Amino acid sequence: MGESAVQPDVRSPSPTQVPTLIGQRIPKLDAPEKATGLARYVEDMKLPRMLYGKILFAGRPHARIQNIDTAAAKALPGVRAVITAADIKLVPFGFGRDNTALKKDKVTCVRDEVAAVAADTPQIAAEAIKRIRVTYQDLPVVASVADALADGAPVINPNVPDNTPFRYDYSHGDLERGIGQSDVIVEETYTLQRVAHCCLGTSGIIADFDATGRLTLYSLTQVPFLYKNDLARVVGLPPENIRVIQPPIGGGFGSKLDIHPFEPICVFLAQKTSRPVRLVFSRQEEFLAMPTRQPMVIRLKSGATKDGTFTFRDVHMTLDNGGHTSWGATTPWISMRTFSSLYRVPHVRQHVDVVYSNNIYACAFRGYGNPQATFALESQVDQLATELGMDPLELRIKNAQEPGETTGQGMILGTCGLRECLETAARNAGWQQKRSALSGQPSAPNRQSSTVNRQSSVVHGIGMASLFHVGGGAKIYRSDGCGTILKVDDFGGVTVLTGSSEIGQGSETAIAQIVAQELGLPIKNIRVINNDTDLTPWDVGVHASRTVFMAGNSALRAAGEAKRKIINAAAVRLKRKPAELVLSEGNVLDRATGQRLESIGKIIRGLHFGARNELVMTTDFYEPPSTAPDDKHMGNISPCYAFGTHVAEVEVDLDLGVIKVLRITAAHDVGRVINRLGIEGQVEGGIAQGIGYCLTEELKTEAGRILNPSFTDYKLCTTTDLPELNLSFVETHDPAGPHGAKGIGEAPLIPVAPAIANAVYNATGIRFTELPLTPERVFTKLKEARANQEPSRARKEADKNDAPTRTQVPSRARKEADRDAPGTQQGGAATHG
Amino acid sequence: MPHVADTVEVALVVNGEPVRRRVPPLATLMDFLRDELELTGTKYGCGEGECGACSVLLDGKVVNSCLVLALECEGSKVLTVEGLNTGDELHPIQKAFVDHGAIQCGFCTPGMIMATYALLQANPSPTEHEIRRALEGNLCRCTGYRKIIDAVLSVARGGAAHG
C-alpha cells in the first residue's frame, strides 16, 4: 500500500521526497476482523450469568393505559424480572423531554414501551411478554400533521395543546423587496416520506453492573459522552459511574444519536436482577421501535430576475415529529442553512412547525434535514430554469458563490468549490451534448435497459442537483471538539486514543493515516482505540460529517507534538539542528540528503532509558473555530462547508412508470482526499441510499400503524439497482481541515433525489414533488398528464418556448399534473402509492 | 432451555469438523451455528430470508441459514465464513473484500462473502451482470455495492486487486 502514485504533501513541503499516505487507497484497519466473522457485534457477545431482555410495545397509536397485569409473566419459570412504569423512576428525556423509558398513563405511538422482562433465554423472555395483559382505553388517532393541526384535534401531549412543540423562524434580507425584484416566481409544495435507517445490524445493548455499582454499557451509541450524561440522569446514576464501550456497530446513519427507551430499560432490568442483561431487537422491532427520518411538507416559493439572478426564497415547513421529540426536532437547523445558503440569495424567510402526531417518532438520519430541503430547493431551481428558459446548469453557475463570501446566514465560505463541482460534474456527464440530444428521446437501442423489448415507450432524461452542507461539524452543542491521547512505545508503536467513534465510515483508518504520516511510521504501527469512555477523551459524537475533520485535526496536533519531541531528542543525540531532520518510514533522515541517520525506535528508547527518562506521550483537545448560532440562527457554525453536484441520467418507462437510474456523475468539494478508498465508499454508499430515498423507500403508516416493517415490503436498493458511477473529488485544500480535508459523510446522499427527479422531468415533462417515485405514482401521474393534454399541442408549445427540454408540458398542464390528489400531502399517509 | 422438553439429535459437518448436538426441533441452522457452536460470523439481519446476512453454504449451495431448520441438516456439510481462512491467511475472497474497500460496518460482509464463494464455485468467471444477480439477495446499507462487485470481479479475474 502507498507505493503507487505518491504525491508530496503540499502542506508540508520538504526537499526530501517523503512518501505520503494522504490521498492513498488504504484498506480499513478493521476490515480483516469483519471479513473473517471474528468481529464481535453486540448480538455476538455473552457475559457469564447474562439474561435476555425483551420489551412489550403498546401496538396501538394513542391510548390510555388502564391496567397492566404482569402476574402470569412473573410466574413463568426462568423469568427474573418484569418491570412497568410503576417499578422505575420516570425521568423525562429526549430533546422535548417528552419521553420516558416506560409509559405510565398514556401511549402516543405504537412503539411506546409499556413493560419489559429479563429471562434466562430469549424464548422465555418472548413467552413472558405474551403473558402480560394490558387494558387500554383507545383515544382518537392523530395520523398526520394535517390531523394534528385541524380544529379540535386531539391533544397528544397535555403540555402542548396546539400539538406544535417547536417552531423556528429565520430570515435575512427583505422578503417583500425580493418578491418585488422578481421577474419569475415559482411556488410549489414538496412532500417527503418517512424512511428508516435500516442498519443491517439491529439495535442492541448489554448492561453490566460491577460490585461497586459501576455500570458498563456495551452500547451502539454514536455519541458516547453525551449519552453517558443523558442516560445517567434517566437511570439515576452519577455519569462518572457509567462506562460506555462500543462494540463494532452494524450501521449508524444517525439512528444512534439519541438515547432510546430500550437502553435505560435494559439498565433497569440489570439493576433489578443484579445480573448482566442483553437486549437486542428483531428486525421487526427495529422497524417498529426505532425512529425514522422526518416526513416533511415543504411549501417553497422563490424567484429570479430575467437574467437568472435569484431574488428570494420563502419557506414554510411542517415536520411530522411523531409521538415524542428526539434531537430530530432540530433538523430544521440544518434544512434552514440550505434554504439560506445554497447559491447566493439575498432575501429569505423561513417558518418551521414541528408537529406531534401518533406516528412513530423521528430522529436524526444522514443529512439531518438537508435531503428534504435540497429536494425542494433543487427541484425548484430547475422549475425556475424552465420558467426562465435557461439551462439549469447555467442558472446554477450564475448563482454559485465564490470563495471568501459570507452567506446571508453568516456562514463564511473560506473555500468554496461549488462552481467547480457544477462544471466538473457537467463536463464528466457530457451535460451539454446529452441535454440537447437525448432529453425526452426514446432510449437508444444499444443502451442497456431492463425494458429493451419495448424501446419506444422508454424515454431518456438527464438532470442535476447540488448540495450545501457543514464540512467541519456543526456547533450546536457548547463544545464541538474532540480529544486525543497519543503514546508511542519503546519500539515506535503508537496507540491513539480518540474520543471519536467508528460506525463503519472509516474514521479509524483516516486517523491512523494522519498519525502515521506525521510521525513517519508505517501505518501498521498505529493502533486506534475509539470505543471506551473510560480510556478515551471527550468528543461530541459521530455526526454532522465531522469525524475525520475533528478527530483528524486533534490527532494531527497530538502527533505533531510527539514528532517535535522525537525530532528534538534526535537532534540532541545526532548533534544536528531539529530543522535538518525529518521522520520517514520509521527512520530519522537528513532533510537535505534523505540519508538515514537513525531509527525512530532507537531515538525513543534513548529518551526513555537515557539521562532524560522521558516517554513520548501527548494529549490534545481540538475545538473548532466555529461559533454557535445566535437566537436568530445566524452564525458561522462550521469552520468550513461542503459542496457537491450530482448529474443523474434516467430511463423512464412510460407504460409501466418504472424509472431506471443509468448513471450518476458526482463531483464533491471534499477539501482534500485523505483515504481515496474510504471516500469513494462514502460517496457510493450515500448515492445508493439516495436512490432508495428517491425511488423505493417508504415506511408506510395507516392510522399510526406501520404497514411494512420488513425488508420484504420496505425496499432497499440491491446490487441490481446500482447505476454506473463516475466520481470526482474537487480538492480546495481548506486551511481549517487536517491536510485540507472537509467532511463527506452525509453529503453524497443529499442531492441524489432531486437530481433524479429533475432527470425524470427532463425525460417526461412531469414534475414530481412527492417521494418516493414508485412505478405506481409515476404511472398514475403520467396517465393524468396524458389525459390533461394533447401531446401534439404540448410539443408545439414547448418548441415555441424554445426551452431546453424537448417534451415539456405547458406550464398550466404541468401545474395541474403536479397537484397531488387530496389527502396525499402528508408523508406516511395511507393514501400513498 | 428449561421450558422446552423436546430436543432432537443432529449430526453434521461444519467447516470440516463433525459435530453432534441435541437441538430444539424448531432451532434454525442460524441459531445452531450462532448459539450452539458460537460461530457468530453468521449474522442475524432479519430472520426472514430477506437480507442474506446469515448466508452459509449447505452442501455447496448458498442458503439463508435463518430459513433452514438445524435438523434438516442431518448428514450435511455446512461451510460458514469461519471456515474460509486458514490461520491468519485470508481467503482470496476475504482479501479482495478488504483490499477493495468492500467493507464498511461489516455486518453484511460474512453473508456477502459466502454468497460470493458459492457463486465462484459454480461459475469461476462470472460477468458483472452475473455477480449482480448472484448477490441480489444480500443487502448492504453502507457501501452502495460498487466496491463489493469490484472485489468479486477481481477474484474472478484472478485476484488482480487494485486496492
Describe the structure.
The complex is a heterodimer of chains A (833) and B (163). Chain A is of the alpha+beta class and 833 residues long. Chain A has 3 domains: 42-139 and 202-249 and 256-289, Aldehyde oxidase/xanthine dehydrogenase, a/b hammerhead (Aldehyde Oxidoreductase, domain 3); 296-473 and 632-818, Aldehyde oxidase/xanthine dehydrogenase, molybdopterin binding domain (Aldehyde Oxidoreductase, domain 4, 2-Layer Sandwich), CATH 3.30.365; 481-622, 2-Layer Sandwich (Aldehyde Oxidoreductase, domain 4), CATH 3.30.365. In chain A, 28% of the residues lie in helices and 22% in strands. Chain A has a 7-stranded mixed β-sheet, with helices on both faces. In chain A, strand 21 (587-590) and strand 22 form a beta hairpin. In chain A, helix 10 runs parallel beside helix 18, helix 14 (507-519) runs parallel beside helix 15 and helix 19 packs antiparallel against helix 21 (811-818). The two termini of chain A are 49 Å apart. Chain B is α+β, with helices and mostly antiparallel strands. Chain B has 2 domains: 8-83, Beta-grasp domain (Ubiquitin-like (UB roll), Roll); 92-156, DNA polymerase, domain 1 (Orthogonal Bundle), CATH 1.10.150.120. Chain B has 5 helices and 5 strands; from the N terminus they run E-E-H-E-E-E-H-H-H-H. Chain B has helices spanning 29-36, 92-99, 109-122, 128-134, 146-156; strands at 8-14, 17-23, 55-58, 61-64, 77-79. The longest helix of chain B is centred in the C-terminal third of the chain and has 14 residues, at 109-122. Chain B is globular, with a radius of gyration of 16 Å. The termini of chain B are far apart. The relative contact order of chain B is 0.15. Chains A and B meet through helix 1, helix 3 and helix 17 of A and helix 2, helix 3, helix 4 and helix 5 of B.
